[in-house]
Structures are given as C-alpha cells and as structure tokens.
Amino acid sequence: MSGDSQKTFYLETFGCQMNVHDSEKVIGTLVQQGYRQVETVEQADLILYNTCSIRDKAEQKVFHRLADFKKLQSQGKKFGVLGCVAQQEGDRIFERAPHVSLVCGSASYRNLPEMLVQIEAGKRATGLDDRQTDECFETEFTARTNPYRGYITIIEGCDKFCAYCVVPFTRGKERSRTSDSVLEEARQLVDLGYSEIQLLGQNVNSYKDPAGKRSFAELLAAVGEVPGIKRVRFTTSHPRDFGRDIVEAIDAVPALCDHVHLPVQSGSTRVLGAMQRLYTREQYLERIGWMKSAKREISITTDVIVGFPGETEADFVETLTLLEEVGYDSVFTFKYSPRPNTPALKLDDAIPDQEKARRLEVVMAKQREIQIAQNKRHIGTVREVMVEGRNDLRAQWIGRTSQNKTLNFTASGPAMAKVGTYAQVRILSTFPNSLLGEMVV
Question: Same domain, yes or no, for 238 and 186?
Fold first, then answer.
C-alpha cells in the first residue's frame, strides 16, 4: 500500500513503561499490516487508546475520552481501546461506547492482524481471554520508538495481590519467558544499534526461567555481558523477591546500572500488613542494607502511598522516618484511591481526601529536603551520561547518569554532544530533581 490509499492510525498511550513498550508492539504490528502512524486523530482512519487502570477514576477518564472521539465517527473513523482498562471493562466498553470497534487486552496483541481484518469488515473484535498465555511477550513485529533505550518484557502479570492493586486482574498471573529468548532479543537490539536495555515486568525480579537455566540475577548479569551493551536497567522490583544476589550482580557487572527502584508503599509494618505487601519494615530495611553495603554506590528510588484505609498519624510518621533512614534519591508519591475488584474496597476507616492531600504534601516536602542534600554530594564529581536530547532554549544537553539522575550540561566547540552517545560530565551545581554540569573534553 502506498500514497493516499494507505490506512492510517493514531495511538495514544497512558501509564507505565510496560504500556509504552506494549504500544511499540502494537505500532510494529500495525505498520507490518500496511498501516501508517500519524500524529493527530484528524489524520487517522483508526484511533487507538492504550489505557492504564492504576490511577483513580481511570475508567471514567477513558469513557470521557471516547465520548470526545464520538463526533469523529461520522467521518468513517474506527476506534479501539487497548490495555488494562480494556481487560478490566471488557464488553462493557461496547455497551457504554457503541462507536468502539476493538477492545483488546495486552496479552492478545499478537492476534491484532486477525482483529484488524474483522473491524475493517465492519465487525467488532475482542481480545480479552489470553492473560495466562506464554505467547504474550513480544509480537513478531515490535517498533522501537525510543531511539536509544530498548525495552524487553521478561515477565508478565502478578501473583502478589496487594490489597490496593488492580494489576493481577488486568494482567493475569505471573509468567516468564525463557532467559535464552531474552538474551537473543538483547543481541538483536545491539544489532539495531541500541546500547541501553531495560528489562520490564510488573514484578521484574519475580522472574522464573521456564527452562530453569538462570535466576533473575543471573539473567541480569548475562544481559549485561552481551557485547555492545553499555547499560542495563530493570523495573519494577518487589521487595519480597529482592535477593542479595541482585546486589552482587550489580557489583560484578559494570554494565548493570547502579540504580534500584524498590517500592515500599508504607513505612509502617501494620499498614504493610493491611496492604498485603508480604514483608515488614524490618525486612525491607534489610534489603536496603544490602544495597548500602555494595561496593558501588547504588541510587535507590521508591513508591509511597499515603492515606491507605486505617492509616493512623503514627503509621504516617513511620513513613516519614523511613524516608530519612533510607535517604532515597527519588520518591513517587500517590494518594490511595480505591480500584475495582481489589480487597481494599472492603476496608473500613477511609481517610478523608483533605487529610490524604495534607499527608501527600508533607511527604513531598520531606523528600524534597532529602533530595537537595543527596544531590549536593555529587558536586565536583565526573559522571558518564547517555545524551538523551537538547534544550535549545537553555543551550543545554539533557543526559541521564547510570544512577538514573537527570544531568543537564553544556558543551562547546568540538566537544558538542550527540543524542544516543555517552559523555563525561563534571557536576557543578544541583537542584532537587536534577544536576547541572559541563562536558569534560
């Protein structure tokens, strides 16, 4: 197909890096089927919406967006809902938004070619029943939309059933792909010119090789030793499955980035129990201790939820003291919001929204103080960054360190940086969320 007769699609993505990578699979499949991606809904024959169900009122936001799109139906455009809200809401989407032609969960993207044929014939297509399949990892055609970081899904789904989380209901049970297939894809990414790889999973370190060849830590090390790979990242880890062997791998293999994202959610053992997180504050701090005693300085980031049902002021204070004790490099903070199908829906003692907002502000202010102090320690040091872009307004390059810190820097003359390459940068000053430096020639 070519010219004006080529079918076009527009894809809007929300949510985590898993969703971003899922969209790469969808894009690759659609392009292979003769579609061309366009930048606006107006240009598109097919409008797709890759959804995330983690945040509060996610379904409402999807239906509002679909209502916005409805006026385009008269132009012959077709609409599809993909991802977690699609899996969660299923055929109810057709009931509430009859102009939608396609509803497809993340495990069914390999069936998109058949579904496209159906919707092009004026029928509805659904892909919702394959969450337990082992064939959900990579489609035959995956578009790599990030020019310098390649994503590889190594495990899908979740068996943890945290009281507040909808992921087990939208992504299904944990299933891992073979370590050999991961390594083969890593080598393919090197051939495509990638030097940084990020391993993905809802619980990435819960990985279990179906072939029994490698543990998660052994797979990490093996990916880091693939010739041509300069950096390996992984997200997201669950503290319950975080072993000392992961820290040992980071120490042993230079390509493994010295950054671990280890969501804690609360500093109170009592609240962690109510959340069904499967560890205590003390067990979590034991894992922090392993990282603090590593030979390399490992940057540690986390997620925190405030206002979980029944969280007392004393419980909340325990979260604040945990922030101080660990000294996180960055914290993603959230107010608890009830999600469909989750055990927490049945819990009493809801925290008023106003109080949740206050606690969120307190956590963010406390963490800001910690980050200001943490970042100042880097002044005067030289760090290697991957160059990710340029801010022309500020005449600065944008880079990221191995510790996943944003480091903006200046470069002049022959030392001009280039996106996708690596540069040595001396840190001159710091801000709460970033570092500033100059390129070392």
Answer: yes
